[in-house]
Amino acid sequence: MAARPSPYLDSLNPAQREAVERLDGPVLMLAGAGTGKTKALTARIVHLLNTGRARPNEILAVTFTNKAAREMKTRVGQMLGETVEGMPWLGTFHAICVKLLRRHAELVELKSNFTILDTDDQLRLLKQLVAAEGIDDKRWPARMLSGIIDDWKNRALTPEKVPAADAGAYNHKGPKLYAAYQARLRELNAVDFGDLLLHMVTIFQTHGDVLEQYQRWFRYILVDEYQDTNVAQYLWLRLLAAGHRNICCVGDDDQSIYGWRGAEVGNILRFEKDFPGAHVVRLEQNYRSTPHILAAASGVIKGNQGRLGKELWTEAEDGQKVRLIGHWDGDEEARWVGEEIEALQRGTRGQDPVSLDAMAILVRASHQMRAFEDRFLTIGLPYRVIGGPRFYERMEIRDAMAYFRLVVSPDDDLAFERIVNTPKRGLGDKAQQTIQVAARANGVSLLDGARIAVDKGLIKGKGGAALRELAEGLARWSGKLRGPLRESGVDADRVIDDEDRAVRMEHGPAEITHMELAEIILDESGYTAMWQNDKTPEAPGRLENLKELVKALEGFENLQGFLEHVSLIMDNSTEDAGEKVSIMTLHAAKGLEFPAVFLPGWEDGLFPSQRSMDESGVKGLEEERRLAYVGITRAEELCTISFAANRRVFGQWQSSLPSRFIDELPEDHVEVLTPPGLYGGGYGAAGLGGASSGLEARAAEANVYNSPGWRRLQARAAERPVSQPKESRTTVIDLEAVSAYTVGERVFHQKFGYGAVVGIEGDKLEIDFEKAGVKKVVARFIMAADD
Ligand code: ATP
Ligand code: MG
């Protein structure tokens, strides 16, 4: 077939071109960030089609996210410049496996219309099995089993293949329950996420004819982000590629960030062994970032051992150094980032105006997003959250806000409907109807209707009692509504600044604060407990968000003011068009690029995470470092790293140290900024600290730690801990400490010795100690075991 013109080849460098044009045999493109791996992979698909080497559906291309798949599809379409009949098999491993499994479901005793369970369903099912087995779910939570089974599936282990070494898993019942779970799924004609790949691998391994059919069918296989494939995905690919051996994988060992989910960076390092005669293409020219940004990224990743060690270069002009700035606390950081984004947008930082679409904030943990969202909503800066709902749209936040709304306005019927049976109070449709009728008959609000219904005995039993309790609670909480700063001499109309906070810390509020009231409402209504008792993987995150919500209240005079603020900003933020700043986690940012990137929260314990720091080996820390590398290399022209000296949790200060990664940034490529608030304005204060040792020290010195405000607060905080919550209604959960552990993990306690985590409850861990038996201990007193 005569080749059509190929303009897409002209925009490639020789190495990329080689990877694109060498269509036969295995090819590995192993190269650093921004070297055009994805671009070349996309061009390769186009080239296959353009040269007539393959029909669209003979090409199998795997991306890591659905978003990446969509982008690649669009680009292929654009590059071809004409419509092709059909499209390649282009999607994530899961998306492709669903399609295949529907065709061959009967081979694993399923029907082709099988359902795919989400994690909640999966857990519910496991709970039933655990209960049927007479296992104490408190001691051996089903969530632990679910983690173990996922891990087996990631390793492509069916119940029969679970190795003897894992026989002791989940109190020796793991393998048996795994088999029971798989059997139950079959009965239900259902699969979980891990099954999609596992079943396909099983089918390929046991039905040679089916495998052969696809080996013949997929003449060309392409895989992006190969460094993050797990064992099951790897086996699946290897089986499929064994026919034509036309497999092209691209990846970067320095960007392997899914080890915690079973990814094996070893897969990429083993490629040449798996596919003898593989052609390896190395790309070294980076087209994305400026030299300063590249140098900063290389400086950090150098700290990892056993890398392949790639050097990147670029023709781009030096541009601006990576900017580093320390802030007093997380809100201050968010405020600064907001101002900076607006300045960049207006073009008042000595550059051309930057579109909001060109800017992104990449956080280590999703709870960091709240401060930014709040700030941006306040100043009306449009933003989008990638990979999750926006903070105030989250279920738990809407629930909590509904409680607050009812306390402030007992007539808010929508709020009442939302929470009347959340948490479960045994008030089903019938009871709710009774309330509606009573309210309408008396011309009153639903809440009053409920009171009437209870008084008249129209709703009896448990539900009636619970409803009465709710109504009484709402009345009690409403009675506690006051403007807390009124008596403390602080002008409440003013924006609450650091000075005000200090005053509040010194005098303390006259009555309970609205933050305390919010905690009381969430506790006494049973809402917090609902999530504490929830063993789904999402529950800890939801509790974390509730904690963030209470933190958000701090900037307001009272509950009313806060609710007004949220309803106003929610209204403004509904329209979807127009430019927006992106906010996402570092994990979600893989493969993406933005002209300006903000990397906040570079503090030890947050980034790197506490968990990775507590681990005995360097594995966790190295994965965090790769995450830092991914973060910095997302930036094209401007990269700004920041940290806060303080993060506040329920009005209590938690001071933190700048991230150890900051000290790994090469000084020559970093400019230390001074936050304008502290010294009355001005940037470019590099060298301000005088004789300094290392960036970290200089940043710290130049900023918060040396400021009078910071010292004053430190002193005050030491003298007088603020609003210690009372034991009786503890919701202060040291989630930071708790989230460092997972069920099943081996830990050490000074007094009780070694043991395994069997449950997590609030800020306590339930641990089965080898010598002392099962005990509940506060997470802070636990260390990860060194073995
Ligand atoms: P990552 O490791 O972050 O996934 P990558 O290696 O996949 O990065 P790409 O996203 O493909 O890199 O490319 C990075 C940027 O460089 C893109 O904007 C791309 O368009 C551009 N680019 C890649 N190759 C070239 C080239 N030969 N000429 C000009 N620009 C290029
Ligand atoms: Mg890429």
UniProtKB/TrEMBL annotation:
Superkingdom in the source lineage: Bacteria
EC number: 5.6.2.4
InterPro entries on file: DExx_box_DNA_helicase_dom_sf (IPR013986), DNA_helicase_UvrD-like_C (IPR014017), DNA_helicase_UvrD/REP (IPR000212), P-loop_NTPase (IPR027417), UvrD-like_ATP-bd (IPR014016)
Domain UvrD-like helicase C-terminal: 291-591
Entries under CDD domains matching the protein: DEXQc_UvrD, SF1_C_UvrD
GO terms for MF: 3'-5' DNA helicase activity; ATP binding; ATP hydrolysis activity; DNA binding
Pfam families linked to this entry: PcrA_UvrD_tudor, UvrD-helicase, UvrD_C
Domain (UvrD-like helicase ATP-binding) ranges: 10-290
Binding site for ATP: A31, G32, A33, G34, T35, G36, K37, T38
UniProt entry keywords in alphabetical sequence: ATP-binding, DNA-binding, Helicase, Hydrolase, Isomerase, Nucleotide-binding
Keyword Signal tagged: no
Reaction catalysed by this enzyme: Couples ATP hydrolysis with the unwinding of duplex DNA by translocating in the 3'-5' direction; ATP + H2O = ADP + phosphate + H(+)
Any GO BP: recombinational repair
GO CC annotation: cytosol; DNA helicase complex
Protein family (similarity comment): Belongs to the helicase family. UvrD subfamily.
Function: Has both ATPase and helicase activities. Unwinds DNA duplexes with 3' to 5' polarity with respect to the bound strand and initiates unwinding most effectively when a single-stranded region is present. Involved in the post-incision events of nucleotide excision repair and methyl-directed mismatch repair.
The protein's name: DNA 3'-5' helicase
Species in which this protein is naturally found: Thalassococcus profundi
Upper classification of the organism: Bacteria, Pseudomonadati, Pseudomonadota, Alphaproteobacteria, Rhodobacterales
